[in-house]
Amino acid sequence: TCKPNYGPNGIRVSVSFYDSSNAFCTYKREFMIENLQLAGSARQILCRSIVRQNGFRVKTHAETSGLVITTTGSPQGQPSSSETYSSIGKTMRVDPCRDIEPTCSVVRQQYVDDKFDRVISSTKNHQKIIDRNLVKLKKDCAASGECLNEEKTVYFQIGITPPQDKRMLGMIANTNLNSHSEIGPTLDRLNKVICTTR
Protein backbone atom coordinates (compact mmCIF):
# COMPACT_ATOMS: atom_id res chain seq x y z
CA THR A 1 0.00 0.00 0.00
CA CYS A 2 1.15 3.55 -0.67
CA LYS A 3 1.53 6.52 1.60
CA PRO A 4 -1.75 8.48 1.67
CA ASN A 5 -1.97 11.73 -0.26
CA TYR A 6 -4.66 14.22 -1.17
CA GLY A 7 -7.05 13.41 -4.00
CA PRO A 8 -8.83 15.87 -6.32
CA ASN A 9 -11.58 16.60 -3.78
CA GLY A 10 -9.22 17.14 -0.88
CA ILE A 11 -9.84 13.61 0.43
CA ARG A 12 -6.80 11.67 1.59
CA VAL A 13 -6.45 8.64 -0.67
CA SER A 14 -4.40 5.44 -0.48
CA VAL A 15 -3.14 3.33 -3.35
CA SER A 16 -2.38 -0.39 -3.05
CA PHE A 17 -0.63 -2.61 -5.55
CA TYR A 18 -2.41 -5.92 -5.07
CA ASP A 19 0.05 -8.35 -6.65
CA SER A 20 -1.16 -11.84 -7.60
CA SER A 21 1.84 -13.23 -9.45
CA ASN A 22 2.76 -16.89 -9.92
CA ALA A 23 4.47 -16.75 -6.54
CA PHE A 24 1.16 -18.27 -5.42
CA CYS A 25 1.42 -21.12 -7.93
CA THR A 26 1.70 -24.07 -5.60
CA TYR A 27 -0.58 -26.52 -3.84
CA LYS A 28 -0.56 -29.53 -1.58
CA ARG A 29 -2.43 -32.71 -2.42
CA GLU A 30 -4.40 -32.60 0.83
CA PHE A 31 -5.39 -28.97 0.25
CA MET A 32 -6.56 -29.66 -3.30
CA ILE A 33 -8.63 -32.71 -2.33
CA GLU A 34 -10.23 -30.87 0.58
CA ASN A 35 -11.42 -28.09 -1.76
CA LEU A 36 -12.26 -30.29 -4.76
CA GLN A 37 -15.71 -29.36 -6.07
CA LEU A 38 -16.75 -32.91 -6.94
CA ALA A 39 -18.85 -35.56 -5.22
CA GLY A 40 -19.66 -39.25 -5.53
CA SER A 41 -17.70 -41.75 -7.59
CA ALA A 42 -16.00 -39.04 -9.72
CA ARG A 43 -14.45 -37.56 -6.60
CA GLN A 44 -13.32 -40.98 -5.39
CA ILE A 45 -11.66 -41.84 -8.72
CA LEU A 46 -9.84 -38.51 -8.95
CA CYS A 47 -8.65 -38.52 -5.33
CA ARG A 48 -7.22 -42.02 -5.74
CA SER A 49 -5.49 -41.00 -8.97
CA ILE A 50 -3.66 -37.95 -7.58
CA VAL A 51 -0.59 -39.39 -5.90
CA ARG A 52 1.20 -36.15 -5.07
CA GLN A 53 1.52 -32.56 -6.22
CA ASN A 54 2.84 -33.49 -9.66
CA GLY A 55 2.27 -37.26 -9.78
CA PHE A 56 -0.80 -38.93 -11.32
CA ARG A 57 -1.87 -42.54 -11.96
CA VAL A 58 -5.12 -44.23 -13.03
CA LYS A 59 -6.50 -47.00 -10.82
CA THR A 60 -9.27 -49.50 -11.43
CA HIS A 61 -10.32 -52.49 -9.33
CA ALA A 62 -8.20 -54.74 -11.57
CA GLU A 63 -5.18 -52.67 -12.63
CA THR A 64 -3.05 -49.62 -11.81
CA SER A 65 -1.17 -47.59 -14.40
CA GLY A 66 2.38 -46.38 -14.03
CA LEU A 67 3.08 -43.05 -12.34
CA VAL A 68 2.95 -40.09 -14.73
CA ILE A 69 4.91 -37.01 -13.69
CA THR A 70 3.32 -33.73 -14.79
CA THR A 71 4.49 -30.14 -14.51
CA THR A 72 0.97 -28.81 -13.97
CA GLY A 73 0.71 -27.70 -10.36
CA SER A 74 4.45 -28.02 -9.89
CA PRO A 75 6.51 -25.58 -7.80
CA GLN A 76 6.95 -22.03 -9.02
CA GLY A 77 9.64 -21.54 -11.65
CA GLN A 78 8.76 -24.35 -14.04
CA PRO A 79 7.39 -22.95 -17.32
CA SER A 80 4.08 -24.78 -17.54
CA SER A 81 3.37 -24.03 -13.89
CA SER A 82 3.66 -20.30 -14.63
CA GLU A 83 1.43 -20.65 -17.68
CA THR A 84 -1.21 -22.49 -15.66
CA TYR A 85 -1.31 -19.85 -12.95
CA SER A 86 -1.25 -17.03 -15.50
CA SER A 87 -4.44 -18.45 -17.01
CA ILE A 88 -6.10 -18.92 -13.61
CA GLY A 89 -4.95 -15.48 -12.47
CA LYS A 90 -6.97 -13.84 -15.24
CA THR A 91 -10.14 -15.02 -13.52
CA MET A 92 -9.11 -13.62 -10.13
CA ARG A 93 -10.37 -10.07 -9.79
CA VAL A 94 -10.07 -7.54 -7.00
CA ASP A 95 -13.43 -6.54 -5.55
CA PRO A 96 -13.67 -2.71 -5.50
CA CYS A 97 -16.06 -3.06 -2.53
CA ARG A 98 -18.58 -0.49 -3.73
CA ASP A 99 -20.66 -1.11 -0.60
CA ILE A 100 -17.75 0.17 1.51
CA GLU A 101 -16.79 3.04 -0.81
CA PRO A 102 -18.72 3.87 -4.00
CA THR A 103 -15.78 5.79 -5.54
CA CYS A 104 -13.12 3.10 -5.01
CA SER A 105 -11.38 2.11 -8.26
CA VAL A 106 -9.26 -0.86 -9.34
CA VAL A 107 -6.94 -0.75 -12.36
CA ARG A 108 -5.25 -3.95 -13.54
CA GLN A 109 -1.73 -3.70 -14.96
CA GLN A 110 0.29 -6.53 -16.44
CA TYR A 111 3.92 -7.17 -17.28
CA VAL A 112 4.49 -10.35 -19.30
CA ASP A 113 2.96 -13.12 -17.10
CA ASP A 114 2.99 -11.05 -13.92
CA LYS A 115 0.06 -8.86 -12.99
CA PHE A 116 -1.01 -6.52 -10.24
CA ASP A 117 -4.04 -4.40 -9.45
CA ARG A 118 -3.86 -0.79 -8.33
CA VAL A 119 -6.52 -0.17 -5.68
CA ILE A 120 -7.38 3.50 -5.07
CA SER A 121 -9.62 4.52 -2.19
CA SER A 122 -9.89 6.97 0.69
CA THR A 123 -7.53 6.39 3.60
CA LYS A 124 -10.49 5.84 5.90
CA ASN A 125 -11.74 2.74 4.06
CA HIS A 126 -8.56 1.44 2.44
CA GLN A 127 -7.61 -1.18 5.01
CA LYS A 128 -11.15 -2.64 5.04
CA ILE A 129 -11.00 -3.05 1.25
CA ILE A 130 -7.56 -4.71 1.34
CA ASP A 131 -8.60 -7.05 4.18
CA ARG A 132 -11.74 -8.16 2.32
CA ASN A 133 -9.72 -8.85 -0.82
CA LEU A 134 -7.17 -10.95 1.06
CA VAL A 135 -10.09 -13.14 2.20
CA LYS A 136 -11.35 -13.22 -1.42
CA LEU A 137 -7.91 -14.23 -2.70
CA LYS A 138 -7.87 -17.24 -0.36
CA LYS A 139 -11.31 -18.31 -1.60
CA ASP A 140 -10.26 -17.85 -5.25
CA CYS A 141 -7.15 -19.98 -4.66
CA ALA A 142 -9.20 -22.72 -3.00
CA ALA A 143 -11.73 -22.74 -5.85
CA SER A 144 -8.99 -23.16 -8.47
CA GLY A 145 -6.90 -25.74 -6.59
CA GLU A 146 -4.16 -23.26 -5.73
CA CYS A 147 -2.71 -22.81 -2.26
CA LEU A 148 -2.07 -19.27 -1.07
CA ASN A 149 1.55 -19.17 0.05
CA GLU A 150 1.46 -17.31 3.37
CA GLU A 151 5.27 -17.01 3.41
CA LYS A 152 5.13 -14.86 0.28
CA THR A 153 2.17 -12.76 1.37
CA VAL A 154 3.58 -9.40 2.44
CA TYR A 155 1.91 -6.17 3.47
CA PHE A 156 4.39 -3.58 2.24
CA GLN A 157 3.74 0.07 3.08
CA ILE A 158 5.27 2.34 0.44
CA GLY A 159 6.71 5.79 1.14
CA ILE A 160 7.10 5.57 4.91
CA THR A 161 9.92 7.40 6.71
CA PRO A 162 12.52 6.16 7.44
CA PRO A 163 12.56 3.63 4.56
CA GLN A 164 12.37 -0.06 5.50
CA ASP A 165 13.90 -3.11 3.83
CA LYS A 166 12.35 -6.54 3.36
CA ARG A 167 13.65 -9.64 1.60
CA MET A 168 11.04 -10.70 -0.91
CA LEU A 169 11.29 -13.38 -3.63
CA GLY A 170 15.07 -13.54 -3.60
CA MET A 171 15.75 -9.81 -3.54
CA ILE A 172 15.77 -6.98 -1.02
CA ALA A 173 13.00 -4.45 -1.60
CA ASN A 174 12.57 -1.17 0.22
CA THR A 175 9.56 1.02 0.88
CA ASN A 176 10.81 3.66 -1.60
CA LEU A 177 10.65 1.06 -4.42
CA ASN A 178 14.14 1.91 -5.68
CA SER A 179 17.21 -0.30 -6.10
CA HIS A 180 19.27 1.19 -3.27
CA SER A 181 18.77 -1.74 -0.87
CA GLU A 182 19.82 -4.26 -3.53
CA ILE A 183 22.98 -2.44 -4.69
CA GLY A 184 25.19 -3.51 -1.73
CA PRO A 185 24.43 -7.27 -1.87
CA THR A 186 24.70 -7.24 -5.69
CA LEU A 187 28.18 -5.64 -5.54
CA ASP A 188 29.24 -8.18 -2.90
CA ARG A 189 28.16 -11.06 -5.17
CA LEU A 190 30.02 -9.53 -8.15
CA ASN A 191 33.14 -9.10 -5.99
CA LYS A 192 33.07 -12.80 -5.07
CA VAL A 193 32.74 -13.78 -8.74
CA ILE A 194 35.66 -11.53 -9.75
CA CYS A 195 37.86 -12.85 -6.94
CA THR A 196 37.04 -16.45 -7.84
CA THR A 197 37.76 -15.77 -11.51
CA ARG A 198 41.16 -14.31 -10.66
Largest sheet: 4 strands, antiparallel
Using the alpha-carbon principal axes, give the shape. Answer: flat
Q: Level of helix content? A: 25-40%
The ordered string of helix (H) and strand (E) elements is EEHHEEEHEEHEEH
Strand count: 9
Please identify the structural class as seen in this structure. alpha+beta
Strand content: 15-25%
Rg calc: 22 Å
Strand order of the largest sheet: 1-2-7-6
Number of continuous helical runs: 5
Ends distance: 45 Å
Low-confidence stretches: none
Structure notes:
The mean pLDDT is 76. The protein has five helices and nine strands, in the order ββααβββαββαββα. It has a four-stranded antiparallel beta sheet with strand order 1-2-7-6. The protein has a three-stranded antiparallel beta sheet with strand order 3-4-5. It is of the alpha+beta class and 198 residues long.
